[in-house]
Design goal:
Order of helices and strands: EHEHEHEHEHEEEEHHHEE
Strand content: 15-25%
Structural class: alpha/beta
Mean pLDDT: 84
Shape: elongated
Number of domains: 2
CATH topology of the largest domain: Rossmann fold
Distance between the termini: 32 Å
Low-confidence stretches: none
Largest sheet: 5 strands, parallel
CATH class of the largest domain: Alpha Beta
CATH superfamily of the largest domain: Response regulator
Radius of gyration: 18 Å
Strand order of the largest sheet: 2-1-3-4-5
């Protein structure tokens, strides 16, 4: 089943939203919905494996929402499907130019939507690998694979490691990691980042040294 795969659907037509949600949940996916781009932007978007955006939303369009998503390093690799009544070549090109992975025109076949969702997830999220492939992330199971062996991580450990691996050699301050992993929870201090980094290094064994400490600055991933 696909219980670990989370999808965010942003669709302002309630009937269509409900049909999509019911059918994708029947495939084992976890589906959250929003009726506007503004509502979607209030959600911790880095929790998701796939976005489905209707283009013709009020106020802020799905394309404008996608531009915001793609501008953020932590979100830019999450695939996007556009869902819309528009079917012109110009609209499709606009979607693909900002990094959309697929474009489905209304009215659509639910079976086709499910097939495209599965294809994109299989293509984009089977594994996120580092350059030397000593550590890989299995997105469907939310685990790390270290030197060929499965390593179980907590949700926050996985999110922290994924953030570092997807942005390798990029320096993250403790405050930045707190915002990403703990969603700006004011009750958590930056010491929590240090503790989790130590736990991650221990779990990763000889590959734990890929997580580098920059004294007084933060952490980076450099395999």
């Amino acid at each position: 089943m696909n219980d670990n795969i989370k999808i965010l659907l942003v669709e302002d037509e309630i009937d269509i939203s409900e049909i999509i949600k019911i059918n994708l949940e029947a495939q084992g996916y976890s589906i959250d919905t929003a009726i506007s781009a503004e509502e979607a932007l209030k959600i911790p978007l880095n929790d998701y494996n796939l976005f489905i955006f209707d283009i013709m939303l009020e106020n802020m369009t799905g394309i404008e929402l996608a531009k915001i998503v793609k501008s953020k390093d932590i979100l830019k690799n999450i695939p996007i499907i556009f869902l819309t009544a528009k079917n012109t070549e110009e609209n499709k090109l606009a979607g693909f130019e900002i990094g959309a992975d697929d474009y489905i025109t209304k009215p659509f076949s639910v079976k086709e939507l499910i097939a495209r969702v599965k294809a994109i997830l299989n293509r984009s999220y089977t594994k996120i690998t580092t350059s030397k492939e000593k550590i890989t992330l299995d997105e469907s199971r939310k685990i790390a694979v270290v030197n060929g062996s499965d390593v179980t991580l907590t949700k926050k450990e996985y999110l922290l490691l994924r953030t570092l691996i997807q942005n390798k050699k990029m320096l993250f301050s403790r405050d930045q990691l707190l915002d990403i992993v703990w969603d700006d929870d004011g009750t958590v201090t930056d010491r929590a980042v240090d503790v989790m980094i130590r736990r991650l290094r221990k779990k990763l064994g000889d590959q734990g040294e890929s997580i580098k400490t920059r004294s007084g600055l933060g952490y980076t991933f450099d395999p």
